[in-house]
């Protein structure tokens, strides 16, 4: 998962499907076999937002346990979060499993609207991060 940061805002996605349909999330997804975390991040941003982050540097925010119920199975995952500080605010085109996207002030995001506890933990860390400055 990645927090795309521009000035004092972060891009949040609205989930198009379950689990958490209609709730907030950060762009990202599962890592494919043989893929690095960074490679998955670049691929997922392209798939979900049609955004090419190229050689933008990533900042590691941390990893948090998560429970992901899907298709009658409860998966226990470890979600990894990165942040990217953007120099320009990109035009975003939601695609794949993202219903919509919105830029929100990092300090004003309603944490209870996030689909997963792991994302709430990552966002709390982002709020205290120097990236917000």
> Total number of β-strand segments?
6
**Computed Rg:** 14 Å
The succession of helices and strands, N to C, reads EEEHEEEH
What is the chains' assembly state?
single chain
pLDDT below 50 for ≥5 consecutive residues: which ranges? none
What is the first-to-last residue Cα distance?
A: 21 Å
- In which range does the helix fraction lie? 10-25%
What topology emerges from the helices and strands here?
Blueprint (H helix, E strand, L loop, with lengths): L1 E5 L2 E7 L8 E2 L11 H13 L9 E12 L2 E13 L12 E8 L11 H11 L6
Parallel strand pairs: 1-5
Antiparallel strand pairs: 1-2, 2-3, 2-6, 4-5
What does this structure look like?
- With 133 residues, the protein is of the alpha+beta class.
- A hairpin with a 2-residue loop joins strand 4 (59-70) and strand 5 (73-85).
- It has helices at 37-49, 117-127, and strands at residues 2-6, 9-15, 24-25, 59-70, 73-85, 98-105.
- The protein is globular, with a radius of gyration of 14 Å.
Any key phrases for this structure?
18% helix; alpha+beta; 133 residues; 6-stranded mixed β-sheet
Compact overview of the structure:
The chain has about 130 residues and is of the alpha+beta class. It is built from two helices and six strands, in the order E-E-E-H-E-E-E-H.
